[in-house]
């Protein structure tokens, strides 16, 4: 990884210091704090806080700054146990999960996205790790529509991954 072309002085400090500090912990990375809208179970949105590492698409969300920082710390530690950490102060390119499973079920995927998730299939990226809880509406709304359209009880599935629901629909288990 190389340092970003236009490092702000505070980020440059983290980058330079990283050559003298090991092992890196979350305190060795520049962190930003900002407002965030949290989707509630009833479909409403409430104000929240997002804490993230500058240069990463890696953050924690909470109702307070402390909750957001705690979530960021939890996710950072989980990531660090099985991945090499990038040098503090550098940008990390975005990588996407594989989509082979959902791509093999393209017709079912597009129909599900349009009729159950009520999104545009051409403008919605999904992967094999896309979870129904990541979409804007509560799971029970998706479950009602999946039941009506496909006879599929999403709550009876082993997980809430989109690809699991698509495979159940394709196998006629609805």
Describe what you observe in this structure:
By secondary structure, this protein is α+β, with helices and mostly antiparallel strands. The chain has two domains: 74 residues, 2-Layer Sandwich (Double Stranded RNA Binding Domain), CATH 3.30.160; 71 residues. The protein is 36% helix and 13% strand. The protein has a three-stranded antiparallel β-sheet with strand order 1-2-3. A hairpin with a 5-residue loop joins β1 and β2. The protein is elongated. 21% of the residues are buried.
Q: Mean pLDDT score, rounded?
A: 88
What is the helix tally?
6
Strand order of the largest sheet: 1-2-3
Q: How would you describe the shape?
A: elongated
Structural class by SSE content? alpha+beta
- Main pleated-sheet profile: 3 strands, antiparallel
The helix/strand order is: HEEEHHHHH
Reported CATH architecture of the largest domain: 2-Layer Sandwich
Number of strands: 3
What's the layout of helices and strands?
Layout: H1 9-17, E1 31-39, E2 45-53, E3 59-62, H2 65-82, H3 100-104, H4 106-115, H5 139-150, H6 162-170
Antiparallel strand pairs: 1-2, 2-3
Distinctive features:
elongated; 174 residues; alpha+beta; Double Stranded RNA Binding Domain; three-stranded antiparallel sheet; 36% helix
Summarize the structure.
A hairpin with a 5-residue loop joins strand 2 (45-53) and strand 3 (59-62). This protein has helices at 9-17, 65-82, 100-104, 106-115, 139-150, 162-170, and strands at 31-39, 45-53, 59-62. The chain is 36% helix and 13% strand.
